[in-house]
Specification:
Keywords: Signal. The protein is an all-alpha fold. It has one domain. Helices cover about 65% and strands about 0% of the residues. The protein is built from 4 helices and no strands. It has helices at about 1-20, 30-60, 65-80, 110-145. The longest helix has about 35 residues, at about 110-145. The model is unreliable at about 15-25 (pLDDT under 50).
């Protein structure tokens, strides 16, 4: 039995090593465009996390936001990370752990295309957040009239 343990552990260790090192990460220089794209991406993730709280308020207020929810699902499917910053979404700028994570495959864009893509995605998530806030606004106004 002991004779099997050492070879088994060696086999397991080599399998883990090859699995973990088997991911091919294309090396890409971090350019000013990618840095800016990541800054915009991080702002988009901040808004997306804010939307999670807005969704909770909409649900609690029994406010129908099904159309906006569909837009949000599309956004969630389309958002991608920026090359060179693939794991920077795990923590926000204050170092707190993010609740929202991006798991979509990267697109083969140039640096300029990544920047433009993140700008478009940021504009879309801002618009979604504004629509949700608008739905909540009448509720807030009604509550202030009751006081």
């Amino acid at each position: 039995m002991r004779r099997l343990i050492a070879p088994s552990l060696l086999l397991l260790a080599s399998a883990l090593f090859s699995f973990c090192s088997g991911h091919k990460h294309e090396h890409r220089d971090i350019t000013a465009e990618l840095i800016e794209a990541n800054q915009i991406h991080q702002k988009s993730l901040d808004i997306r996390e804010e939307i999670m709280d807005l969704e909770k308020s909409l649900k609690e207020g029994e406010i129908d936001y099904s159309e906006i929810k569909e837009e949000l699902k599309i956004w969630d499917k389309d958002i991608i990370e920026v090359p060179g910053f693939e794991h920077s979404h795990d923590h926000d700028h204050e170092g707190e752990h993010r609740k929202y994570h991006v798991h979509n495959p990267m697109k083969q864009f140039s640096d300029a295309e990544h920047l433009e893509y993140q700008k478009v995605m940021h504009a879309e998530i801002e618009e979604i957040a504004e629509k949700m806030k608008y739905l909540l606004a009448p509720k807030v106004m009604d509550e202030s009239e009751d006081n």
